[in-house]
Write a structure and sequence with these properties.
Elements: H1 65-79, H2 83-99, H3 107-118, H4 164-170, H5 184-196, H6 205-215, H7 219-236, H8 244-255, H9 277-286, H10 296-300, E1 305-306, E2 314-319, E3 323-332, E4 335-338, E5 347-350, E6 358-362
Antiparallel strand pairs: 1-6, 2-3, 2-6, 3-4, 4-5
Helix pairs in contact: 1-2, 2-3, 2-5, 3-7, 4-5, 5-6, 7-8, 8-9
């Protein structure tokens, strides 16, 4: 069990008392930096704002033209992003890098928005043609949270699910013709223009979070986008293909963001709708065909320990000699997904802070 002191920024709560935790001032470029305070029991403690900003990581960049094709093919394959969508995100990023260099927009932000909103245009079985236009125009993809509350924006459209107000204000054509919300080049460019509006510098964590909130303020969207950015950024900077089982486990956990913390929960539905901390990690790796022990303590004692966590590693808290009481799933950039405590949803947190009882990391995969 973990009690979270300072948590990831968010502006609203999920219904039925399951909350994504209160807003703070600390994020990192395309990834909020938030800090768990770990204790043994469930008694909530008021969140405390951080006193210093974290270092801002360097996001992966779009390479020069001579290397672009190989990079796009490799990265789209690693991340299961359709190549034509990947090209659209990269083209928009490159153009905005020239038009508004002070914005510091990264392709991982556009790609994460495309993933969370429509699975890169594939939400209803569509695909992009060579010009970047979806063969099946996408209207609003209705998204509901676990308690059946609609959290998507009415009348949003296209592969980036841009709202009418955002499209009207920020629409642009990459090719110079009439903008088309169903064209990934135009939709990605317009999304980037919206994110960069008002002179925003997205290398500043809080600014990034506020910018993404203008696209869609629902906590479910924000936390899933945040987690996806961390994963895409981590994989995008790697020199080798990611472990398929690790990506499967991490993507499983991202899909469960927003579910409630349930003591002993395995996420099977009905009276067992959500997860406790080790229930989430167990189910995530089970989705990848890897069996873990059921509790945080037994997981700690049954997986190989590592010094520096990597994508998909388990993050443990407690006293190694006696009892491990909490576990999360590392997603890169000092962040993890975990089921924190009763009254909070599965969400994204930083995995370290001064004074925590971090016990180490373990790697379920080779």
């Amino acid at each position: 069990m973990v009690v979270v002191g300072a948590v990831v920024v968010v502006a609203a709560a999920l219904v039925a008392g399951v909350q994504l935790a209160p807003k703070q001032q600390e994020t990192a470029n395309a990834a909020a930096t938030v800090i768990p305070t770990v204790t043994q029991r469930q008694t909530p403690t008021p969140p405390k704002p951080p006193t210093t900003a974290p270092p801002t990581p360097t996001p992966p960049k779009v390479p020069e033209a001579s290397e672009f094709d190989a990079w796009a093919s490799k990265t789209s394959l690693w991340l299961d992003i359709p190549l034509r969508a990947m090209v659209g995100y990269a083209k928009a990023t490159t153009k905005l890098g020239k038009d508004v260099p002070g914005c510091h927009l990264s392709w991982v932000t556009l790609a994460a928005v495309g993933k969370v909103t429509t699975d890169h245009g594939r939400a209803r079985g569509g695909q992009f043609g060579t010009t970047g236009v979806l063969d099946k125009p996408l209207g609003t993809i209705e998204v509901r949270d676990f308690y059946n509350k609609v959290v998507s924006t009415p009348n949003a459209a296209g592969p980036m699910q841009l709202t009418p107000s955002i499209w009207t204000k920020h629409q642009a054509s990459y090719s110079g013709g009439k903008p088309d919300v169903q064209n990934v080049d135009d939709a990605a460019l317009s999304t980037g223009r919206a994110l960069c509006a008002g002179g925003r510098d997205l290398s500043q964590g809080q600014t990034w979070w506020d910018a993404v909130s203008t696209l869609q303020p629902a906590p479910l969207f924000l936390h899933r986008t945040l987690a996806t950015v961390n994963v895409y950024g981590t994989v995008g900077q790697g020199s080798a293909a990611p472990n398929a089982a690790v990506l499967s486990a991490v993507n499983f956990a991202i899909d469960k963001i927003g579910l409630p913390y349930i003591w002993g929960g395995n996420g099977t539905g009905g009276s067992d709708p959500g997860f406790d901390c080790s229930g989430l990690t167990t189910a995530a790796y089970a989705s990848a065909g890897i069996k873990l022990m059921r509790t945080a303590d037994t997981q700690f004692r049954s997986v190989p320990h590592v010094t520096d966590p990597q994508l998909g590693d388990l993050i443990f808290y407690g006293e190694p000699a006696t009892k491990i009481h909490h576990v999360g799933l590392y997603i890169g950039n000092q962040q993890m997904i975990d089921a924190p405590q009763t009254g909070q949803a599965v969400q994204v947190h930083s995995y370290r802070r001064n004074g925590d009882d971090y016990a180490g990391a373990g790697r379920p995969t080779n």
